[in-house]
Design brief:
Structural class: alpha+beta
Shape: globular
Distance between the termini: 28 Å
Number of strands: 12
Order of helices and strands: HEEEEHEEHEHHHHEEEEHHEH
Length: 328
């Protein structure tokens, strides 16, 4: 019997040292960007008592003999950073590792670097402007010269690209557009819209343009507040940023209502039970911080590895990681 030979090159880094040096410059430039704006750098735990209730996020877990509870590797530092905001930190940013199960591919690694920051007194449009300034500066370090920065509402994007109004389009019409992939999303409008966005819209966004998509359907609010758009339609005040069809950032004009946030967590858990997914307890410490009073602010999370990938002109996230999961 012969045994499979181990990969003798697996000890080597996946990224070139040129790419790693670019990462270092991007990190330095990011910190300089926030230092110039008097935004405080913070650190929060990677291990937390609670996972996330979001249906599309899956936590990795760990056990520690010093703590009786199962711990969760954080999918984002958001909850802990909001606790700092409620305690009076002022504007803050963080560059940290985040972890998500069931995510591996050309643009995904289960352990990744996230940049997240919060700005008091800004709405989602104000934060989009600041995020655009930072992203353009970082991409320029890699030699990218973007053609334009532009914004469009979620509704306008679907109308322009697919000729439908996502607010009023019948679910059966969405299923027809999704084709054979529709059964996986069986009748769930948000899953169908997400599928169409990923498959039919993102790959066809114009290249070399930083595109901000804002004002999502209320059912996709997550931790964003609801409000009215220019046409007086109820929307979720959140945004995402894209370059070359790659999602780089996800931002919210933050919900500050503890009761509303608790209700959204409970709604997530109902859907998780229906789908047979784990049902983690809602983060009571986040809810306590919201009840104490989260200041009016907007926050955004940026996939730093993806920014590095596009700045370097790489096709895979592995090309800008020293040791992706298979080489860890």
């Amino acid at each position: 019997m012969t045994s499979e030979r181990p990969d003798e090159s697996a000890w080597r880094p996946a990224a070139s040292f040129e790419a790693l040096r670019l990462r270092a410059r991007l990190l330095e430039a990011t910190r300089s960007f926030f230092l110039a704006r008097d935004v405080l750098e913070v650190e929060t735990p990677l291990l937390g008592r609670r996972g996330v209730t979001d249906l599309h996020l899956h936590s990795l877990t760990a056990r520690c003999t010093a703590v009786p509870d199962l711990l969760h590797l954080q999918t984002s530092p958001e909850y802990a950073m909001k606790r700092l905001l409620a305690a009076g930190s002022g504007d803050i940013f963080q560059i940290c590792k985040a972890f998500r199960d069931q995510e591996r591919g050309r643009r995904h690694n289960p352990e990744f670097t996230m940049l997240e920051w919060y700005r008091l007194g800004l709405d989602h449009h104000g934060l989009m402007a600041e995020a655009g300034d930072l992203l353009e500066q970082l991409l320029t370090l890699g030699g990218r010269c973007l053609e334009a920065r532009e914004g469009t509402s979620y509704t306008q994007l679907f109308e322009q690209r697919l000729g439908i109004d996502p607010r009023t389009c019948e679910t059966s019409a969405l299923e027809a557009l999704a084709g054979p992939d529709a059964p996986a999303a069986a009748g769930d409008r948000d899953d169908l819209l997400a599928l169409l966005l990923t498959r039919e819209i993102e790959p066809h966004l114009p290249p070399n343009r930083l595109i901000f998509v804002y004002d999502y359907p209320p059912s996709q609010a997550a931790l964003a507040r609801l409000g009215r758009d220019a046409s007086n339609q109820l929307v979720a005040h959140r945004f995402e940023a894209y370059l070359d069809g790659v999602e780089l950032a996800n931002g919210f004009w933050e919900l500050t209502d503890a009761a509303e946030q608790r209700a959204r967590f409970e709604d997530d858990l109902v859907k998780r039970r229906r789908l047979g997914l784990p049902t983690p307890q809602p983060d009571d410490r986040l809810l306590g911080a919201l009840a104490k009073g989260l200041p009016d602010c907007a926050g955004v999370a940026v996939g730093f590895d993806r920014v590095a990938m596009l700045a370097a002109g790489a096709l895979r996230i592995d090309d800008v990681l020293a040791f992706p999961v298979e080489r860890a």
